[in-house]
Amino acid sequence: MTSSAAGSVRLGAGAVILGIESSCDETGAGLVRLTDAGPVLLGHELASSSDQHARFGGVVPEIASRAHLEAMTATVRTAFRKAGVRPGAVDAIAVTCGPGLAGALLVGVAAAKAYAAAWGVPLFGVNHLAGHVAADTLEHGPLPKPALALLVSGGHTLLLRIDDLAGGISEIGSTVDDAAGEAYDKVARLLGLGYPGGPVIDQLAATGNPTAIRFPRGLTGPHDSRYDFSFSGLKTSVARFVENTERDGGVVPVEDVCASFQEAVADVLTAKTVRAARDLDIGTVVIAGGVAANGRLRSLARERCEAAGITVRIPRPGLCTDNGAMIAAVGAHVAAAGARPSGPLLSGNPAMLVSTVLAD
Ligand code: KG4
Ligand code: ZN
């Protein structure tokens, strides 16, 4: 580790970074080692409170915060065991400080501050959204500059131009209403499938007919925004279909509804991503966030990017959904570039902008 007079820290090859994630309902801890080819994953551990939210059809913030508090130290300890490193080997800590649920973020930030103070290492408060994109570098190595990222999670649907994961991220497009993952969760709820909706819809869709029902593709008209998304009309359309079927005394074809809904989501996401990559002349696309675990999105993205001559990178499903390793990866990128650690007043920022990778 080298430190400059300005108080910035630059980590070199061999440095170990602990990442802590607690922005929603997953408590994550991950360890990465910095190499000349970027961060590599040593090991990570997750604890989820999703079962406790299932009966409410969505995340209950107070339950999530309490669950983080209960799971944090054991999760960190297990991550160390899995990674095969001791706490004394850690050179820096990165923690999600936003965006996310205020109380949930607070637990991770407080824990990370305590570990950083106890071990005498720098602390970086980093952006969760940058973490989703950085997760891909753990699997596929450094990103070409620039790259285009499609970030699809429970709270966000963003098209991003990534010039530098350590601090050069700009928004190209976003959803004007529901996020893609939110649409999955809401459709699952109205079909009585519980929370989270993505995995169960993904599974049921596998045996359904994706062309059974033609659901609307939001913002795809000739005069609509080229890079923005809309999923609330799709969700409403699914609700109307279910209501009408039941009113007419029919049985809702759940697998077909799932497959047709999923087709509409994957169609719009991939079409707009390929369009943006072409318009901006960017040759590499990264798809990240929880919805990037989706089977149909992955296959359609590969198909359409290949046809357009675009390289597509998607992390394995276990690194798409929230985890601590992705946060450690952002920490590795900022620390390798030389960055000023976050100060003692670091706190959670529920509305942290995607363009801010590192908090003061
Ligand atoms: O990134 P993430 O783990 O947490 C947030 O930052 O929001 O994303 C969670 C979202 C949820 O809406 C969940 O339903 C969705 O990702 N998701 C999926 C799949 N797995 C998780 N959506 C579609 N297909 C999946 N296989
Ligand atoms: Zn996330």
What does this structure look like?
This protein is of the alpha/beta class and 360 residues long. Helices cover 42% and strands 20% of the residues. It is built from eleven helices and twelve strands. The strands form three sheets. The protein has a five-stranded mixed sheet, with helices on both faces. Strands 10-9-8-11-12 form a five-stranded mixed sheet, with helices on both faces. The chain has a two-stranded antiparallel sheet with strand order 1-2. A hairpin with a 4-residue loop joins strand 3 and strand 4. The model has no long low-confidence stretch (mean pLDDT 97). It binds 5'-O-[(R)-(carboxyoxy)(hydroxy)phosphoryl]adenosine and zinc ion (ZN). Zinc ion binds next to helix 4.
